[in-house]
Amino acid sequence: MADEVIVEYTPDRVMVVTLNRPRTRNAITAAVSDLVAAAVDEFEDRGDLDVMVVTGAGGTFCAGMDLRAFAAGEHAFHPRRGFAGITGLPPRKPVIAAVEGYALAGGFEIVLASDLVIAATDAIFGLPETKHGLVAAAGGLLRLPRRIPESVALELALTGDPLTASRAQQLGLVNHLAEPGRALDEALTLARRIAANEPRAVAVSKEVITRFAPLPIEEAYARQEPVVAPVLASENAREGARAFAERRPPAWRDR
Q1: 109-128 residue pLDDT tens
Q2: Cα dist. 53→11, 63, 115 in Å?
Q3: Which 8-state DSSP code applies to residue 209?
Q4: Using CA of residue 183, residue 189, residue 195, residue 201, what is the dihedral sign?
Q5: To which H or E segment does residue 135 belong?
């Protein structure tokens, strides 16, 4: 079963996690959730990894929960990190979804748990749970209206109808479109741009945007202060300023 999730590492401090059940369109089982959760834990713990890219094998991203396993009584929720080992507790460092083909139901919820999205032009997203008597309970109904207008999120959730990649980009859900077969390559290019930056500044920037930005501005400022202050006082902050003044690439410490 370890082959059902492939974990790879690039020289650019990027972890690539590939869902590898192409015969089932990479449907999620309990075993897959455990394997992804283990990869996310490793990503969090390792100081030499700055960005995670999640993708799927066989020309598609993920069709969601394995319904045959669900019908047999299996639940694909990791006890700590939730469905697919990531939707309940995403990592504090950035995650990019590289989407080819279908990202449906729980597959779409993995996308929504990611921070940035690269999608092939022919990719299809959707929350078809209501068509099957289910509810998108792995964060889809909570995250989707934070990423696109509420009225559009409601239409997608209530009808279960699909969303094209071009429309998703128009709505701001997809960052960049790629030619079919090129989503992972484009995601790795974006990941390298992020990984070149100071890692703690990147992680804190994600935290401020995702956790504090939705709060009232006065509370947001108060909440961000103890998180931001150590970064601004760090040696790497001074190195970044020196490098800018000297017109050279920064040499980050403790990487």
Answers
A1: 999 999 999 999 999 999 99
A2: 14, 18, 10
A3: I
A4: negative
A5: none
| Residue count (the chain) | 255
Burial (Cβ within 10 Å: 0-12, 13-18, ≥19) of residue 214: exposed
pLDDT above 70: percentage of residues in the chain: 99
Residue 107: name the closest of 56, 160, 70 by CA.
56
d(CA 86, CA 145): 19
Could you tell me which of 62, 101, 53 has the C-alpha nearest to residue 83? 62
225 is known as an active-site residue = no
The token pair at 215 is 């709060």
Q: Is 129 a catalytic residue?
A: yes
Nearest to 74 by CA among 32, 110, 39, 111: 32
Q: pLDDT digit string (tens) for 39-84?
A: 999 999 999 999 999 999 999 999 999 988 888 888 899 999 999 9
Provide, for the chain, the percentages of residues in helix, strand and coil under a 3-state DSSP scheme, each rounded to the nearest 5.
45, 20, 35
Among 4, 8, 44, 129, the active-site one is 129
**Structural domains in the chain?**
2-195 (3.90.226.10), 199-246 (1.10.12)
The pLDDT assigned to 254 comes to 74
The CA distance from 177 to 98, in Å, is 10
Choosing from 109, 155, 179, 246, the catalytic residue is 109
Please give, one letter per residue, the 3-state secondary structure of 14-51: EEEEEECCHHHCCCECHHHHHHHHHHHHHHHHCCCCCE
